[in-house]
Structures are given as structure tokens and as C-alpha cells.
Amino acid sequence: MKDAATIIANDREKIVQTVCDLIRIKSVKSAEMPGKPFGEGVNQALEYMLQEAENIGFKTENVDGYAGHVDYGDGEETVGILVHLDVVPEGEDWVHPPFGGEIHENKIYGRGAIDNKGPAVASLYALKAIKEMGVETKRKIRIIFGTDEESGWKDLEYYFQHYPKPDLGFSPDASFPVIHGEKGIQIFNLLYTIQQDEQPIQLVRIKGGNASNMVADRCEVELSMAENIKQMLGNDLEEFIKKTGYDLELEPAGENMVIKAKGISAHGSRPEKGENAISHLLLFLAQCPGLNESLKKFVTFYEEKIGVEVNGQSIGCGFEDDLSGKLVFNVGKIEMNQHQVTLSVNTRSPITVKAECVFEGVKKELKATGVQLEIEENIDPLYVPVEDELVTQLMEVYRAETGDIKSQPITIGGGTYARALPKAVAFGALFPGQEELAHQKNECIEINDLIKMTLIYAKAIKALVSKK
């Protein structure tokens, strides 16, 4: 009988090709269509993955376009592997096409390579290895392909109305070795209405960022003003750039002027890894004389309560605990509709801190500012003790396959599907010390790492479900 390593080595080309093909599907959430709740691209990715599973011998189920699954084995309990096929918007300034699925220097480039299409394919081929080895199971194994992880988890909400939750499992959507705790996630908007007045500089529009869980790498504002103000604005901007080093530029737009800010994108759970273009632009506006009074009040609020902080200390939610560290605060998007400006915020609260404390802390700091809080969503934290058998078994597999005995189970600010199950953890797919490129330009996955994680997942599945 072949072992897992041999089976996976023989499947290497097919694994790589499947990841490349999947990346070429632009599965960014878009307008709902009949039978396609998250749009055409996301549905195409789901159908592609289920067809690939059928091609290698599995029966599949498509649950009304919300999610799909693949099963193997039997048992009273079910082990779930939860992956997702949707991706965040691509952003700009890629070296290689974000939906090209191109291979360069033994890396597959593209949005979703590591988050989460590469690991999804690895999980499928890990299960194929288990099937070909004929592993006798004491538990059923089910891979669930989600489609709305990056937006609101409406996929799993629908799926679990139709199918029971697996009893335990993992999600290969973070990093190795084992993520046994995840902070709570709060998604909310800060709303403010701009009133026109007689000041020399008026706001025409403002737009920046792509999603609350991404550090904004672009932001621009269009301002109307008298001709004699334009030179002064340019001089002020020049001085501000010298002082801060921020990447800002001024250009005409008809009779108006546009200021563009360029930052560096990063995952919203690690905003310190990026540079927020929204913050840079609003901090400049806070220095501008002659600004519309209500706009001035808003940008002053931003300067005083948010600024470039990433832990929420000035806006009333700077919480911290020993288990998971400091709260993380990210402004991911700004837009304007009519006269209302909306800031989209994503916070990651410490495991022991309740979401109500976060919201109440923010509300307290909003008093007398004219800024309103609009709560969108709260996702509870995850915690599995390090001594739990699930954690210890996965750690044993990881150490045996990598030789890494130093790395320990950790907690993170990121949120994975693991928290959707009664008992689950995140397990991979980024290896210790590797650069985090999820939600960033030039996202990629090393082909050797892709194959290595496939083997780790096969061994993990066997450890969790095998009778022997």
C-alpha cells in the first residue's frame, strides 16, 4: 500500500495546476444572482472545486451556492476541515497579475494563494491520500468549502441550517503550528454628516480602502476651492510630506483639486504591518486652514481619537489581556454618500473582553463629536486549552513532519472558520517565520510549502480519524 508522501508526490503537478486554475477565478464577492448568493465569481470557484473533488473520486454536495462539502469515512463523530474559496479585493501595484495564477521562482502568485485557495486544495488532496491509503475511520471527515469568509460568514450561517456542525476539526487559514485562540471580531461603522458652509474649502467626495479587514492602501479626496487657495494648499501639503514622509500628491480635477494618498495594505488583524492611506490623508486635512467647519470637526475627531493608532486606546477600547494581548483597531474603508461619510472599522478584541465593552467604550468617546456608531457584526472569540487532545494531536503531527520542536501553540487576532465549530483550531497554512501576505499585494505560496502542508494535513486527518 502506498504511503501518504508517495501519493502526494505523485499528485504534485495536479495540486499545483488546481491551485493555479482556482486563483484565476476572481472570487471576490459581488451582486447576488439566482442560485449564486455571493455573485458569479464566487459561485464559479465553488463549482470548480466541487467538480475537481468529483474528478478525483469524491461525492460532493452543493448547498444552494452558499457552500459545498466532500465526505470520507464513517463514524458517529465528524471531523470538519473548514476552508474558504472567496477572496478579498486585489488592490493595486502587483508585480504579477493578481488573478493570473502564474508561477515564478517556484511560487504561485495570486489573490487567495495562501488565503485560502492553496490550503483548500491541499486539504482536498490530503483527503485523497487518506482515501487511496484505505484508512479505516472511527470518525467521518468532511471538508466544507465556504464562500463568504471574507465578508460576513453568511455561507456557514446558511449551511449549518441545513447540515449539523462537525464535532471537532480545524481550519487551515492562519499559521502553523496550532492557533488555539482567536480574538473576538467587531465590525462597525462610524457615521458623520458634512454640512456645507461658507468656508473656502469644501468637500466634494472622499473614498478609500477596500474592506474593513484590510489596511487601506489608497485614499483620495476631492475638494472645491477658490483659485487663490490652491497654491496655499499645495504648499501646506509639501510641508506636511516633509514632516511625515507620507506618500501624498495633489492634482487638479477640473476646477477642483484632488489629494491622493498611497499606503501599504496588510491584513486587518495586523495593521501595524501596513500604512493606512485613510489615516495619512485625514491627518493632513486636520492641518488645513480654511476647511469646511463640519469637515474640520470630523478630521479633528479622527486625529484625536484614531490617528495612526492600531490598538484603540484613544477611542475608548484599548483593552488587553494576558491570554491574547492588546485589542487591534483598523479603519479599512471610507466612503461618502450624499453628505454622509462612513468609516468602516474592524476591531479584534482580547479573548477575555466582551464585545459590549468595546462598543460602550467607543460610544463614550463619540459623545459631543457628531459621530454615530453603527454596529454591523460581532464574532465571538475562540479558545481551546493547549492541553486539549485536539491541540496535542495536531502538534505531534506538525513536529513529526517538520522537525520544529520550538514553536508552541499561539493565539492570534485573525478570525477563522474554526470558531464556527464546537471545538476547533486553526492549523496552518503559513509556516513560522514566513512573511504574511494575506490581503496584501503579491500574495503567493511556495510550491514546496504547498506540498508539505498537503502531507501534514493528510497525517493530521489520519491522526484524528483512524481506528488504529
UniProtKB/TrEMBL annotation:
InterPro entries attached to this UniProt entry: ArgE/DapE_CS, Bact_exopeptidase_dim_dom, M20A_pepV-rel, Peptidase_M20, Peptidase_M20_dimer, Peptidase_M20A
Superkingdom assignment: Bacteria
Record-level GO BP terms: L-arginine biosynthetic process; proteolysis
PROSITE patterns attached to this UniProt entry: ARGE_DAPE_CPG2_2 (PS00759)
Chain ranges of the Peptidase M20 dimerisation domain: 257-363
Cofactor(s) of this protein: Zn(2+)
Family assignment from sequence similarity: Belongs to the peptidase M20A family.
Name under which the protein is recorded: Succinyl-diaminopimelate desuccinylase
Biological source species: Tindallia californiensis
